[in-house]
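Handout, page 2. Input:
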Amino acid sequence: MSLHNAFAMLRGTRSLPTLPEAFLFGAATADHQCEAYDPARQDIRDVWEREHQLVMRGKATDFEHRFQEDIELARQLGCTAFRFSIAWSRVEPSPGQFDDAAFDYYRRLLAAIQSASMEPVITLHHFTWPVHVQQRGGMIGPEFPALFARYVTEVVNRLGQDVRRGVWITFNEPSQLIYGYIKPGWEQNYFVPPGLPAGSTFDDQVAALGQLIRNLFIAHTQARQIIKASKPSALVGANPLLLGLPVWLQRLINWNATRVKGEAGLNKNVRRFVARQLHTTATAQGVNPLRAWWNSVVQQYSILSTVAASNWWHLGMAGRLAEFLCPKECVGQQDFVGLDYYWGISRLRLDRVGRLIQAGLGRFESAPVWPGALY
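Output:
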């Protein structure tokens, strides 16, 4: 029995749609996860792993020397696209100084992908950036859009003409980058780098969040303009992570985000995410079960109903976010709608909502899996 027929049987009488010939089926890598550690070209995640006593990447998968094998495996799987990310810290090891050997490696990688009849999908920022960029304020610094534009300009000038079509992702999962600047009140540490300095207040977190979102929109828009100026046919976008929520709930959350009109409103909105704590509801004697259930509902909704949990990237691109977060010139600046989808819930069972929240914050062990939201 073919897979097509097997899936058709599982879904009852409905048959699977036929995918168009232009559909790209692919595999993906990320530079920090597959390229070896280089002490002369550290990225911010190398520093994070060392400071938090996490496992350092070491040789990783030694992709630099074995990418031909991986590309051949992808070709044998039937892939028609191969996504990879450029290590910003590798091509620009010091401010304004670009490494010829690093660009030569990525040029060879591009050639190998295209020789295997696959479309390269290039990610410019996959959760990492150079230490020297962080020293100048990082992603929330006033210079960040300009620093990112300088890097993108060099990449496009050196590699852009080597790409036949040109599919570019500026920021991988921009929605997750916010967790390097805000954290729930019940957590000791930030989930991802860089984290704010010790002693940072709630107001500091909110200010950082607002500046980050604005900088990401501006940096993305400038990068898209640079890429399109070199190759007008290029496709440029991003791929935020989406939580799979019931449609009515996601619409309510997005509506809450669109009501935030200024920094004071953002402070009030995000306070529900940062300040509230999740409590167990069945440990203390004498707790009214109905009250405990209602408290759990309120607490979980308080987390979900914030800008942080909304589809803020797509809301900005649609012109539905306040201008202080997404300037007017950034609206609609994408050539495709990207998304990453991992987990979801089909209805509001509180235990599954809690597991979904934890997964969205970085704990995946019991994440609820529901493919229906992606469909």
